[in-house]
Amino acid sequence: MKRKNIIVMPKLSPSMKDAVLVAWNKEINEEVRKGDVLFEVETDKVVCEIEATADGVLEQKFFDEGDHIRVGETVAELID
């Protein structure tokens, strides 16, 4: 049975409310290992790399480069 792992936009600072998706580092159907850089976001202060929190295959992306993502929103789904 396949299990889904949800990747959400983490809160990177106490005042952070959202970030802009700068780049995807993985493609749909690509294998992802925990700790791999999945995507990059820009906050009001810096560009940060967001790592995968689980192993799996990237099944779905919910945002495109340039989109604003609120803290806690689902950014991607992995299946294992």
Note the topology.
Blueprint: E1 4-8, E2 18-24, E3 31-32, E4 37-42, E5 47-51, E6 56-61, E7 68-70, E8 74-79
Antiparallel strand pairs: 1-8, 2-4, 2-7, 3-6, 4-5, 6-8
Descriptive overview:
0% of the residues lie in helices and 50% in strands. It starts with a strand and ends with a strand. The strands form two sheets. A four-stranded antiparallel beta sheet has the order 1-8-6-3, with no helix packed on it. A four-stranded antiparallel beta sheet has the order 5-4-2-7, with no helix packed on it. The chain is mostly beta strands. It has strands spanning 4-8, 18-24, 31-32, 37-42, 47-51, 56-61, 68-70, 74-79. The protein is built from no helices and eight strands.
**Tally of extended strands?**
8
* Main sheet strand line-up: 1-8-6-3
The pLDDT mean sits at 95
Work out the strand percent.
over 45%
Pick out its properties.
80 residues; mainly beta; 4-stranded antiparallel beta sheet; 8 strands; 50% strand; elongated
How would you sum up this structure in a few lines?
The chain has 80 residues and is mostly beta strands. The chain has strands spanning 4-8, 18-24, 31-32, 37-42, 47-51, 56-61, 68-70, 74-79.
